């Protein structure tokens, strides 16, 4: 049976998917390195490492790839982006009302809500100023890339509240952990 003809964009997506499968297999075998190649690396290992460095993910501020971002990653259940001009579908309140409910000032740049787990598996929401970081996460998650931001510095955290804010976009890991993948 002949393969269906792919559009140029679908072809590129398929190549990217296969490249991720190759780098995931190399990682599972212990051959993948994002650092400079070891002296004893084979030509194939060097090629796979170069491939992995190029397709790792869509980079964004706070993705942990820069040395000055040497902070542990935050495993997120999901995120919400609040901006004066756009709120998540299903949110019935205005931007100003949402900010007042969260106990933060309404800022022109908006806010990102990072839903995660605290001590004892308590569900918590961090209200952070890292909107660009959150948009980078969403771009990666939309492509099936399971990436997370580094822990915010204290000046980026405006508020921490019990419970999760919503309606949120679930992370790949959060959806799996909550048992809602494929829904």
Fold and architecture overview:
The chain has 183 residues and is an alpha+beta fold. It folds into 2 domains: 8-56, no CATH class; 68-177, no CATH class. Helices cover 33% and strands 14% of the residues. The protein is built from 5 helices and 5 strands, in the order ααβαββαββα. The protein has helices spanning 8-28, 43-55, 95-102, 131-142, 172-177; strands at 78-82, 111-117, 123-128, 157-162, 169-170. Strands 4-3-2-1-5 form a 5-stranded antiparallel sheet, sandwiched between helices. β2 (111-117) and β3 form a beta hairpin. α1 (8-28) crosses α2 (43-55). It is globular, with a radius of gyration of 19 Å. It starts with 7 loop residues before the first helix and ends in a 6-residue tail after the last helix. 21% of the residues are buried.
Indicate the structural class: alpha+beta
Strand order of the largest sheet: 4-3-2-1-5
Radius of gyration: 19 Å
How would you state the average pLDDT, rounded?
86
Low-confidence stretches: none
- Count of alpha/pi helices: 5
Keywords for this structure?
single chain, 183 residues, alpha+beta, 5-stranded antiparallel beta sheet, 5 helices, 5 strands, globular
Summarize the structure.
This protein is of the alpha+beta class and 183 residues long. The protein folds into two domains: 8-56, no CATH class; 68-177, no CATH class.
How is this fold's topology laid out?
Layout (H helix, E strand, L loop, with lengths): L7 H21 L14 H13 L22 E5 L12 H8 L8 E7 L5 E6 L2 H12 L14 E6 L6 E2 L1 H6 L6
Antiparallel strand pairs: 1-2, 1-5, 2-3, 3-4
